[in-house]
Amino acid sequence: MVPYSARRQLVGRAIGLGLWLSLFLAAAALCDLSPEILRQGLGKAPHFAREFLPPLWATAEEMVEPLLSTLALASAASLLGMLLAFPVGLAAAANIVPTWLRLLVRILLGAERALPEILQLLFFVVALGLGPFSGMCALAFSSIGMLGKLVGDAIEEADDKVLESLKATGASFWQVIRYGLLPQVLPSLAANALFRFDVNVRSSVVLGAIGAGGIGAEIARSMGMLQYNRATMAVLGSLILIYAAETVSGQLRRRLLEHGR
Amino acid sequence: MMWPSQNARRMWATVATFAAFLGGFLAYLNVEPLAVLFQGQHLQNLFRDVFPPRLAVLWERSGLWWSVVETLAMAFAGTTLGLAFALPAGLAGAANTTPHGSLRAAVRFLLSLERALSSFFILMVLLIAFGLGPFAATITLALGTLGGFGKLFAESLERVESAPAEALAALGASRSQQICFAVLPQAAPALVTGSLYAFDINLRAAIALGIFGAGGLGAELLLAYNTLRYHDVLALALVSLVLVTAVERVSDFLRQRI
After folding, report:
1. Which CATH number fits the domain B57-257, given the four candidates 1.10.940.10, 1.10.150.130, 1.10.3720.10, 2.70.98.50?
2. Of B18, B121, B240, the CB nearest to A79
3. Among A186, B55, B129, B207, which one has the highest count of C-beta atoms within 10 angstroms of its own C-beta?
4. Rounded CA gap, A70 and A82, in Å?
5. What fold does the segment set A62-260 form as a domain?
6. Does B44 touch chain A if contact means CB atoms closer than 8 Å?
């Protein structure tokens, strides 16, 4: 005999799974997910392999400049995002600013995180024109969206006693923030900013294809000109960049956390 | 950690290094941020060209709501397909459930390769292979889900307590019985939470891929953008904002119930 509560749980799960499955079948029909299309596409695989491989090694040198540009874009956006995240985080912390300001800043940060970066890039391109600067602004914005919220949360969780005792010694508002708050949140901010750098490098490749230049533009242009093996070379370059960024970011974060103990 | 607060000179050195790096990157990118900010006409242009959003586009364009449905369908189908493959990938990639160590290494490598490949490149290749339409975008989203959540699932599986599986082994349970009755039940909450999270991510990605030619709401955005209807672009951006936020709320609600 199955106990009543367990049976109810089982029925609930079955209903949930059935709902999910029927939704999937409806969505799959809308998206033309048919084995026919899959077979046709997979039939082209050998042809694709010949077009895309081997990478056009002769263009390896041409990829260095766009790669550096993408790296510079992501680095500048990460630094800028980290620097601005602290003041934004202050404005998002209940123990620093009035409730209405905190709410406003939190809503804006939430809206920023909800919008895809590529969509934000379109607006920056309208304002600033095509080029890496628009891409940097878009990425700096999304870095602030993430880091600002995290800093705000960290400040709200910061040790009040430190701030109180600083105030008791007659420290001014900014001195309390500088000597009481900053040392408490800086390690986590630095670690999160390093993680964000990893994300930014990946994103800057994508944004490049829409107008921020760099290696992403190189990939998109090669594909557009049907030079598929050149595109493979550019993708290979972006892979190296992304792996390197991931490794450096991970190592530095680990070292930061070890020192923090 | 020796933070510069203990030493003012070190703090200024850090700040100076930061400023030097930032300046160097900006110089390399050939931008003069101060000039851009102080000329101010750029911001003025933005406000003139983009504000206010032309909300009329929401009922004037008949295909718009259909494109929203299409984006939701792409995200949902991509999530489900991706998760269906991410679970076996996770099982093969976790040290305590994998059939063989070399399979684990191979799976982990392939997953990290997928994560490093830019989604727009995958989409472009698939668009050529499968033709224009939501099919290529759905597969791109499924692959992205596989790369991200295959890794996440493997990590969740590796984090479970080993004692229950050992207890079952002592009773003579086979490896697959241990996985079914000791490892998976422990990891289940993490897997379900991750699955709900995957849909949030994929909805955002589906809108972004639309801008690269995958159809749906993103395609509407791109069309408005390319025909210089910037007021419409802002209205459509607001639609995406509402859509993403609403889905986030729903998945938060479901997560809390589970």
Report:
1. 1.10.3720.10
2. B18
3. B207
4. 18
5. MetI-like fold (1.10.3720)
6. no
